[in-house]
Amino acid sequence: MTEDPTVAVSDTQKGSGGDPLESVIHSLLRELGEDPSRDGLIRTPSRVARSLRFLTSGYRQELDKVLNGALFPVAYDEMVIVKDIEVFSLCEHHLLPFFGRCHVAYIPNQKVIGLSKIPRVVDVFAKRLQIQERLTTQIAEALMERIKPQGVGVIIEAKHLCMIMRGVEKQNSVAVTSHMTGVFKDRESTRAEFLRLVRERQ
Ligand SMILES: [Zn+2]
After folding, report:
1. Phi and psi dihedrals of 74, rounded to 5?
2. What does pTM read for this prediction?
3. What's the mean pLDDT in 71-100?
4. Residues having C-beta closer than 5 Å to ion ligand 1
């Protein structure tokens, strides 16, 4: 993150008095055996508070506003797929990041959604404290509810720092979760096509 002198001034003026999250981080540093008043840490509580608020900003976003009426009537009824959407989230058990790629597909039922909106939907749910399984389901269910398509498929492949950094798993292990609804659940050929399209060019 870049050091912005104007931000530094406002942080100093604000001190540690106002923001309860900042004082929690201040205490956290002390509990960890650190000296929160040393040079390198003096602005850490305000940085961490701001960073955490950004990383959990999905709680404060409304899906309807994000989608902003970007639904379009269309006669197209083939699979729409957006793959390799970057996902960054925080595991709710350790507050450590998990990150990777999300693949989303649906088969329209007279309506499509602007393609750029799909990564935004992923982000609304990723910027919360999550477990990968629930994140996958929430994305699928939200799209199912808003687009009312014939079906939705969502796959997330992610690495979890809480597993990697603590040595619980090997460095390269990837957790894969999927959630299929409608025709993706009921029709083997649809699911197979989705999986084939996801694996292509990887
Ligand atoms: Zn964890």
Report:
1. -160, 155
2. 0.88
3. 95
4. 91, 93-94, 162
